[in-house]
Design brief:
This protein is of the alpha+beta class and 82 residues long. It has a domain of 46 residues. It has 1 helix and 3 strands. Strands 1-2-3 form a 3-stranded antiparallel sheet. The radius of gyration is 16 Å and the shape is elongated.
Length: 82
């Protein structure tokens, strides 16, 4: 059973779903696929405490540029103002 049968924000219906979250740390970004409870009305995502701890660990690794084991999928560039 889901911890929230209805969304605590809007009262909408909640479903269990696999979602992608974008995490940042320093100048680095990671896309992480996790399980969440998702509101079908407002889109609010609810995560378990374990998933939130996982997000914090990934963000800390990104901040320290400890990206070994991560798959590089692109690059970002800043264009100077001319």
């Amino acid at each position: 059973m889901m911890p929230f049968p209805t969304c605590p924000i809007c009262g909408g219906e909640m479903i269990h779903k696999t979602v992608e979250e974008i995490l940042q740390g320093g100048g680095n970004t990671a896309i992480v696929t996790v399980e969440a409870e998702l509101c079908l009305h407002c889109g609010e995502r609810l995560f378990t405490p374990e998933t939130i701890a996982y997000f914090e660990m990934i963000s800390a690794r990104l901040e320290k540029e400890q990206t070994q084991g991560f798959q590089k999928i692109g690059a970002a560039y800043a264009v100077p103002v001319t």
